[in-house]
Design goal:
By secondary structure, the chain is of the alpha/beta class. The chain has a domain at 3-85: Transcription Regulator spoIIAA, CATH 3.30.750.24. The protein has helices spanning 25-39, 55-70, 86-100, 103-106; strands spanning 3-7, 10-14, 42-46, 74-78. It has a 4-stranded mixed β-sheet, with helices on one face. It is globular and about 45 Å long. Residues 119-123 have low confidence and may be disordered.
C-alpha cells in the first residue's frame, strides 16, 4: 500500500512495487496526497518501485497536481526505473479528460462524464 514517509525534511508518498488493489489504490493515494498537501506546498510522489501505473492512479495524480497548482503548490514525481514516459502518459490522460469533461459543460459541475455526452434520453 502507498505510505507517507519523511526523508530529509520532505514528505514523500511512496508507492508499492506490487500488490496494488486497483479499487482501493486511487482512494488511498488521493488521501495521502491530500494529507501531504496540508503539511507542505510541495508533494513528492515516488513511483520508482512501481511496475505499472494504472489509468485510475494517473487520474488521481493529475487531479491532485491541478489542485496543488491552483493553491500555489506543486507536485514532483520520481520514476527512476520505470520504462514509461511520464510526461507523455500525463499528456494522454489530460487529453482524455478534456474529451470526457469539456470545460464549457463541466466547469463547476460534479456530474459523471457520461452525463456530458450527447445521448438520446433513456440510453
Amino acid at each position: 500500500m502507498p505510505k507517507l514517509v519523511k526523508h530529509q525534511g520532505k514528505l514523500i508518498v511512496e508507492m508499492p512495487a506490487i500488490g496494488w488493489n486497483h479499487d482501493e489504490m486511487p482512494v488511498l493515494l488521493d488521501d495521502l496526497i491530500t494529507e501531504a498537501a496540508t503539511k507542505s506546498p510541495l508533494v513528492i510522489v515516488d513511483l520508482s518501485t512501481s511496475r505499472i501505473i494504472p489509468g485510475s492512479v494517473l487520474g488521481v495524480l493529475v487531479r491532485n497536481w491541478q489542485r496543488l497548482r491552483n493553491r500555489g503548490g506543486n507536485m514532483v514525481l520520481i520514476a527512476n526505473d520505470l520504462q514509461i514516459d511520464l510526461a507523455e502518459a500525463f499528456k494522454r490522460k489530460i487529453e482524455a479528460n478534456c474529451v470526457k469533461y469539456p470545460v464549457d459543460k463541466a466547469k463547476g459541475s460534479a456530474k459523471k462524464y457520461t452525463e456530458y455526452e450527447n445521448r438520446p434520453p433513456n440510453q
